Amino acid sequence: MIYVLFVIGFVLLIQGAKWLVGGSSLVARWFGISELVIGLTIVSMGTSMPELTVNLLASFKGSADIAIGNVLGSNIANVLLILGATAAIASLPVRRSTLINEIPFSLAAALLIGFLANVTIGANGLSKLEINRIEGVIVLFFFLLFIVYTYDLSKQDTSLEEAPVRDPSEKGWKAALSIAGGALALFLGGKWVVEGAVHLAQMIGMSQAFIGLTVIAIGTSLPELVTSVVAARRQSADIAIGNIVGSNIFNLLFILGVSASVRALPFQDLSNIDLMVVIFASTLLIVALITTRKMHITRVHGFVFLTLYVAYLWYLVSRG
Description:
Helix content: over 70%
Shape: globular
Strand content: under 5%
CATH architecture: Up-down Bundle
Structural class: mainly alpha
CATH class: Mainly Alpha
Strand order of the largest sheet: 1-4
Largest sheet: 2 strands, antiparallel
Distance between the termini: 26 Å
């Protein structure tokens, strides 16, 4: 039964994120918020709800390896797998402001997590690999700075000349029901996925970190994959890019910040290698854009990203 619930849990995570994003995006459009801001905030936070739910439940259960592996694995999958698959379908134009501001912010967030995980702050001089509660609050402070930035961006963005007129057929209660139903589905799905993952790791003799970096990371990243591919096919590159970059920032700063605030997260030595892969993926994204004339993530880039992700999975399997 636990395996049945494990599979149902993933379905609920994906469907719950879809409901939550749908309702939230509808409300955002009513207020005339641009696609880039929607991608960086509403969509990226909504599609990251599975990671947040899984991490909070894993933190309460004391499964830190699943919590950290889920975030790092999801960020790697977001860039190498999801952005790679999306770009392989259609070349993605990227705004200059995204290259200069949002992507470097995502890279800085990864460097901040690496610094705090390896340098103990506020623990009576005791040095240990972990992100403690004080450091969790510090991480949340930087997330607040990102929210302030996106708010300022929404004020400056002129991509919408005027706020869209609300369609009278669009009922407010439907949006509210969609958001509430999505939140409930995410909670139940996250609960069953965590319980199933812990049991699965014990049964096959693999570490919880491995399960978090692979099965859970890919599973909780499916909303980002669906959202970005659909956005790319609809020529909404801003939503596709904003979803990936915003989701990575949200994962590192908000999800790890909240998780560490609930309970200190022990950080394994091998997690530093996974964090380096996160940093490498973000750096590679910047290099790919700088070396392209028209600021596009091309189909060639997409296939390179996918190849690198397969190589990373092979490394994870070989290390166990």
